[in-house]
Design goal:
Strand order of the largest sheet: 3-4-5-6-7-8-9
Mean pLDDT: 82
Radius of gyration: 21 Å
Helix content: under 10%
Largest sheet: 7 strands, parallel
Length: 145
């Protein structure tokens, strides 16, 4: 429910009317447009196209395409993953394509077919499967919507 309040400005000959939003609406306004957040303990199945940033702390079974993908240490994705930038602290199983940069952090695991333009693997990071370097300029022209 919205609530309203009046404010009188002594320097003006009119009243200002303010609408106060409930806390839930303020939280919704703070969300970034075009982003997906999968919280820890949340499991999703399907195909996801995310125009901006996808942050995964839960699990996804299916395909995901995003501009930037962040997989936390509790995140697991089983399916085809495509993004310009991938920051991997959890696990990705199947096919992974980083059109610009792939960062495999010390807790990260990339298992399967791994394509990347640039790669950085921290000590402890796990890359198992078929790595393949790709031309980053060729794949970066794809649009998301």
């Amino acid at each position: 429910m919205l609530s309203a309040s009046w404010a009188i400005d002594p320097n003006r000959c009119c009243y200002d009317f303010f609408i106060e939003k409930p806390q839930e609406a303020l939280l919704a306004d703070s969300n970034q447009s075009g982003c997906l957040t999968v919280g820890e303990g949340v499991a999703l199945n399907g195909t996801f196209v995310v125009p901006d940033i996808a942050s995964v702390s839960g699990s996804i079974e299916g395909d995901i395409t995003a501009r930037e993908l962040i997989v936390s240490s509790t995140g697991v994705i089983k399916g085809k993953v495509t993004a310009d930038i991938i920051d991997l602290r959890g696990e990705i199983h199947d096919t992974l394509t980083a059109r610009k940069s792939l960062f495999i952090r010390s807790t990260g695991k990339a298992l399967g077919s791994v394509q990347y333009a640039e790669i950085e693997v921290e000590k402890g990071g796990d890359l198992q499967g078929t790595p393949q370097k790709i031309d980053g300029d060729a794949g970066s022209e794809q649009s998301f919507g």
